[in-house]
């Protein structure tokens, strides 16, 4: 697996404490002695921690993180440590499998809408980049962790305009140096691509060259091959083709083995949930 999660662990341990409300709640359970509650009131983290660097490959039976100190503190940390390291290492590992399959082609992390909660989306974005993704569509995560933000237009953008061509033209007006147009809302080859080419023609005459299309449905191999041929014939060999839609490492391998002319991948749900292996079974051992 690929190790991830250490940053969050350190941030939380630096702030380890029990506030007044925490202590009152524990007291209300009538399960704990006042001596124990007093201990928690004045707790100071007194353990040493050793850990492998994030992004490091870890093999079975190898320790990812070691806590040395009072048993009572180590046990207080157990669930949090396992949750954090298991979750983020799981996503980093899945991201590595996906980016390895993609080769040198960039993989954008697109998973925020499918993550298991807001926090999982944010920290999952970071873990995905540790695993090899080039960027994230989660702008909050990009800001928080200083990682590249990337993405293309949404279907909702196109549906908000009276026509697909109007949506494309407005996007190119607002983002002339990032004109990646989503061409599958209605019909990739008979509507989206012809409308995109008209916009690319205007952009190229303005000296702009950072443009392309995204395909989010259908037979990605056949559509990307036909789109590449049409774009080249129209005089736009620089136009990039991005694909998305429930991708994982197996689908990406299949697409590339079929010689699909794809330049970028956007990977969402199967990455951010590690759909093929949604649980990482890291455990804790006491010595």
From TrEMBL:
EC number(s) stated in the UniProt entry for this protein: 6.3.4.21
Domain Nicotinate phosphoribosyltransferase N-terminal, first and last residues per copy: 2-86
Residues of the Nicotinate/nicotinamide phosphoribosyltransferase domain: 107-272
Assigned keywords, A-Z: Ligase, Phosphoprotein, Pyridine nucleotide biosynthesis, Transferase
Class of enzymatic activity (EC top level): ligase
Catalysed reaction equations from the record: 5-phospho-alpha-D-ribose 1-diphosphate + nicotinate + ATP + H2O = nicotinate beta-D-ribonucleotide + ADP + phosphate + diphosphate
Family, per entry: Belongs to the NAPRTase family.
Described purpose of this protein according to its UniProt entry: Catalyzes the first step in the biosynthesis of NAD from nicotinic acid, the ATP-dependent synthesis of beta-nicotinate D-ribonucleotide from nicotinate and 5-phospho-D-ribose 1-phosphate.
Name used for this protein in its record: Nicotinate phosphoribosyltransferase
Originating organism: Oenococcus alcoholitolerans
Lineage summary: Bacteria, Bacillati, Bacillota, Bacilli, Lactobacillales
């Amino acid at each position: 697996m690929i190790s991830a999660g250490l940053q969050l662990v350190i941030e939380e341990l630096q702030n380890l404490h029990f506030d007044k409300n925490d202590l009152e709640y524990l007291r209300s359970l009538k399960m704990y002695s006042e001596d124990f509650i007093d201990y928690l009131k004045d707790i100071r983290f007194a353990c040493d921690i050793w850990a492998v660097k994030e992004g490091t490959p870890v093999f079975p039976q190898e320790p990812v993180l070691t806590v040395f100190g009072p048993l009572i503190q180590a046990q207080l940390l157990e669930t949090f440590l396992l949750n954090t390291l298991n979750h983020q290492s799981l996503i980093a590992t899945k991201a590595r499998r996906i980016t390895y399959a993609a080769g040198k082609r960039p993989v954008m992390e697109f998973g925020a809408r499918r993550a298991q909660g807001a926090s999982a989306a944010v920290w999952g974005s970071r873990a995905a980049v540790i695993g090899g993704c080039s960027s994230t569509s989660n702008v909050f995560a990009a800001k928080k962790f200083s990682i590249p933000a990337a993405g293309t237009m949404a279907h909702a953008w196109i549906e908000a305009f009276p026509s697909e061509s109007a949506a494309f033209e407005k996007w190119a007006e607002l983002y002339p140096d990032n004109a990646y147009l989503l061409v599958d809302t209605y019909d990739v080859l008979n509507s989206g691509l012809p409308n995109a080419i008209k916009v690319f023609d205007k952009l190229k005459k303005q000296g702009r060259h950072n443009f392309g299309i995204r395909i989010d449905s259908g037979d990605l191999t056949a559509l990307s091959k036909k789109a590449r041929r049409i774009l080249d014939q129209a005089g736009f060999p620089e136009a990039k083709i991005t694909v998305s839609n429930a991708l994982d490492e197996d689908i990406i391998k299949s697409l590339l083995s079929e010689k699909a002319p794809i330049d970028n991948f956007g990977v969402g749900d199967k990455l951010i949930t590690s759909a093929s292996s949604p649980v990482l079974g890291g455990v804790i051992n006491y010595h």
